[in-house]
Amino acid sequence: MRAPRLDSIRNRILTLAVLGTLVPAAITLGIAYAQNHRALENRITADLHSESSQTAAAISVFLKQRLHDLRVFASSEEVSSNLNRFASGQGSIPSARLREYLRSLHVRFTDFDQLMVLDAEGRVLATSAQLSQPPALPAEWQTTMRRESQLVGAAHWDERSGKGKLLVAVPVQRPDGRVLGAFAAELNLAPIQHQLLSFVEDTGAAGAVYLASAEGRFIASSREISAALLGTTIPAPMLATLLGQEHAAVTYANVWGTEVIGTLEHVPQLPWLLVAEKATDEAFDQVRRFRNFGMMVVVLVMLVVAWTAYRLGMLIVRPLEQLATGAAEVAMGDLEVDLPASDAGGEVSALTSVFNHMVARLRDKRQELAATNEELRTKNEELERLSVTDGLTGLSNHRALMQRLGEEVSRSTRS
Fold first, then answer.
1. Long-range contacts of 82-90 (CB under 8 A, 24+ apart)
2. Among 58-67, 309-318, 358-367, which is the least confidently predicted range?
3. Are 190 and 198 in contact (CB under 8 A)?
4. What is the pLDDT of residues 64-86, one digit of tens each?
5. Is pLDDT larger for residue 165 or for residue 284?
């Protein structure tokens, strides 16, 4: 692509006008876009941080309440007596009253899909419902139970019920502190999803909120709870980036390949993480529309300025081109040139007037010179006639006779 030629005044005026408009406008638009983008990013960061912090606190309170309920359930004399009798070898079958107690609790507290009483080895002694499968207790669960007085297991998908569930348990102890067993429950994850969804709908800051374990395995999300979600884990590099910039907004491609801006928060007193994120296309749509509108305005202004500069250039250049053409004709000897008055006014009009006056002066001088030459020629002819005529008689004088004699001699010599 060749650069435009700047050998004419019109092109120079046009280029100067376009650059004079484009450069400041582009700089101003760039600065405004950067400032708006930064301000919007700070606001999104604050909103995501506020939302994720509140959601994490709410999840922590929800689980604490459920664990508190289990502690209340476990403090029943029916639970401890059955476990104590089983541990001392006085009986191997739990009483019917214990099963009835668990079923009554299950009816009253619907957040629990199943209530279970476990012995010290993790075997199920009694349950509020038909046991679909033995509970998946983590390794060293007894140690965790003694150290933390509670157990929060890994989330799993129950194919039979089509629900996401979470195993939680509290110890059942004798008055001397010895652990007899555990009171466990399968907690339905739907209430947790509802809490995540309620915060998304109330604030509108995030597109989605995810609850994950400390290892990055998803537990629930504001969008869904499914077997695929519970089997998905946040990649280690992404998790390390989020953990390294906790509370701050980070732009990254999430597990599903979508470019998002998100923040990470730890759930208080639980080994869980909460990630709130929003697609960058949606988050920065406002500033992107501002940028596009600004570019459209800049282009429109540039076109207007270019057209105005072209018109002004034509007003200036056309008289100059006429002057250049007229000067060339004058140089060739044509003094009949008479340029029309310029509409541009100012210096160009004055220059045109001076040029026409100069040509008129030259034309007058040439006419005066022609008249002088004609007068001189007439006088020369008169002098020539007087030089060969006798002033007294009006006849040819001696000079004329000798001149004629010389001419005849020359003619006779040639012939």
1. 82/117, 82/125, 82/126, 83/117, 83/119, 83/125, 83/172, 83/180, 83/181, 84/174, 84/180, 86/119, 86/125, 86/181, 87/119, 87/120, 87/180, 87/181
2. 309-318
3. no
4. 999 999 999 988 888 888 888 87
5. 165
